Hints:
alpha+beta, eight-stranded mixed beta sheet
Amino acid sequence: MEQIYKIFSSLSSCDAWSVFLLKIKETESIQYESHKITLSPNGIISDFIRDLVDKYTRFDSGVLGMYDAVDVYDGSSIGTSIYKFSTEDDIIEEAYNSLTQAIKNSEREGNPENERFNAYFIQGLINFDESDHPVKLFSLRTPTTVLKNRFRYRNGVYEELTDRLFTLRSTIDAVIVDNDIYFLTMDAEKLFGIERAYKKICNSKVEELITCSFISDPETFQKTATSGHNPRRFASYNQNRVNHLGNESARVKWANYFGIGLDGSNFDTSNPTNIEKIIKLICNKGMADPFEDAPVEVAGSKKWK
């Protein structure tokens, strides 16, 4: 948490912010379009940033105070955790590179009101630890809207507002600093099409697992493993556990411990309940309670410190 506090506390060190509207489109791959915009009067972004810093770092009621930890993203959605990626993480690397290219090619001319954007971000250069760091703050909510039944006073009458308005939203969903990406809300998953990404990973890993010698019914396994909540679990796929379960004696031991049915010495994957347990086990959701010596399901896990 120290690093994320440092980042937000340092936002006020930047006095030259840029604002971009962002369109995120998911087809066979995720695509981006960005448009750099100018806000008036001068200094309005710096005022907004000061308010944002106060909102997130305030001693007694700052938003960051609701979080307990910064954890590596593993597909779980614990509300008190901020999730962290590297820009080179397999889950988001392709999308991140596309986003970076779209930002470099941002439009600066034309009327952005002719387009419909579904996010915006603010970009700047902040200073902490005696060096400068590029930062981007993303809001994954529609930034422009036409307000119905809203009027403003002009020339003696109240005129209806018909223009599309841009809103600086004070909720930040994702932050990119240097080569680190932080998800502060689960809406941030939309930025990189995370659902599409972990489904792709799931399909790949399931194909690999089917080639292992310990799956008794490949067809049922594939159907169950790639449906429901299971694809998200593969975000924390643990190859070391899979390798360990390749050993027959280890497989039988842990099958008995976690209540996974066997077909001879192989996992009985004709039963969807067994498949669910196997996936939880190999994706770090199945753990052993050291005091009760009993299997438990966990939302997420990390090394004990």
